[in-house]
């Protein structure tokens, strides 16, 4: 499996998780740590302009989806 195939597989896993659970991966659940770490690392690479150009659009769509499903405090 190439690096691009692994990236796409992880991307699809995260998108499916967010659409299924209507929330972002949690740092408090061990089974979600891989997805959360991938999101943080990829966001860091995007901000440092180190992300491959073909991945930028896909990741920005994922960030928009994550922002739509952001945790909302029940007391606000």
TrEMBL record:
Specify the protein name: Helicase associated domain-containing protein
- Higher taxonomy: Bacteria, Pseudomonadati, Bacteroidota, Bacteroidia, Bacteroidales
């Amino acid at each position: 499996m190439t690096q691009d195939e692994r990236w796409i597989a992880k991307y699809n896993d995260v998108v499916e998780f967010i659409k299924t659970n209507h929330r972002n991966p949690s740092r408090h659940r061990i089974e979600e740590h891989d997805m959360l770490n991938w999101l943080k690392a990829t966001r860091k690479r995007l901000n440092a302009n180190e992300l491959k150009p073909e991945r930028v659009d896909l990741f920005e769509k994922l960030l928009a989806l994550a922002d739509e499903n952001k945790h909302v405090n029940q007391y606000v």
